[in-house]
Amino acid sequence: MIGRYTLPEMGRVWSEAHKYELWCQVETLVLAAQAEAGTVPADAVAPVRAAAPPTPQAVATYEAVTGHDVIAFLSAWADNTSPREAAAFVHFGMTSSDLLDTALALQLAEATDLLVARATSLVAALREHALAHSGTLRVGRTHGIHAEPDVWGHRVADFAFAVARCRDRLTRARAAVAVGKLSGPVGTYSNIDPAIEAAVLALLGLRPAEVASQVVFRDGIAEWVSTLALTATACEAVALEVRHSQRTEVAELAEPFGTGQKGSSAMPHKRNPIRSERICGLARLVRGYVTPVTEGMALWHERDISHSSVERVALPDAAIVTDYLLHLTTGVIEGLAVDAARMRANLESTGGLIYTSGVLLQLVTAGLSREDAYALVQAAAMDTWQTGASFRETLRTRAAAQGQPLDEAALDEVCRPERYVERLGPVFSRLRALS
User: Residue 133 catalytic?
Assistant: First the structure.
């Protein structure tokens, strides 16, 4: 991923330098376990443990010749080992994927820990914003059309619980990918004792695959990327709401706009929802990685490498982008400007049409059949759409023409916006308890 969208902590997890640090860690632990078991000389451990990880440049120099990343790494690391002969016992009994898959599991676990922390911060921001606006009336919209009165905090509470569920999925996905293997070329432990695998993976905080070929089966990694896609899309849902509500015709919300920020090179008046648009755009990238990574589950026999080229790009990018999206969405919510007066004005802009559901039920309660009540209310509503008159006025006209009396006191209650949100208390109680 380009530096523009890479935050430092997540960038470090996926850096070449950190990858080689993890490779050294895995290989050193295996060497030490082999020495303890008496499989390799004990005096090989200290020199290898003291050897500095090879630089990415040193590995790249070897790989330009070998065309094999693990062999290049081992050669470059051996150059840092004194005496060099000790390096002969590094990678003893292992195959390349023992190292690659085990170290990848460590990277995935580290990345997920960062994502869980980011998601927790976003949940907190959404929770506090929703609670602060638990009484901020706005119109609810379905199909983009005014529906019934709502409060802004209710909409945000929905986002808060959605992101919390994504955070919980991330925790479960971490367990799915925190899996290593040290079982040799086709997973039969031909040159390495299963006890070595168990001991080393325990030290690394990983669990051994129940069974492996040359590689760990990719369903856990596919689950992980799918979880990132859901998380990114939850961020997009928040951003899409902001984008819609910042449109000039709506003007209920506005994302942060910093001092000195510019919206357009040509139009100085512009204050565009660029953060929210960026969130919506980048979420597409994360979703786009689900299919190619999932296709890595089906490999030829014990292994081919059709998955590895995809994973080198898709896994770091998906993690880096999701990390950035969580961070960016948190900033949007923390700096979001809410125009409560505009929300109320928009709520009232259709002349009372947003109360038709309550009016319908009031007329049924008064004795009309549902069919007759619906026909009366709909006809009055269509008159309001066409004439711009108030809904109560068109309803009175239509009811009088049909000889239908109206209970004006009951309609006063039905046409009170607060009535439609009076039962939201338990929602906000659950939200207060969300952590």
Answer: no
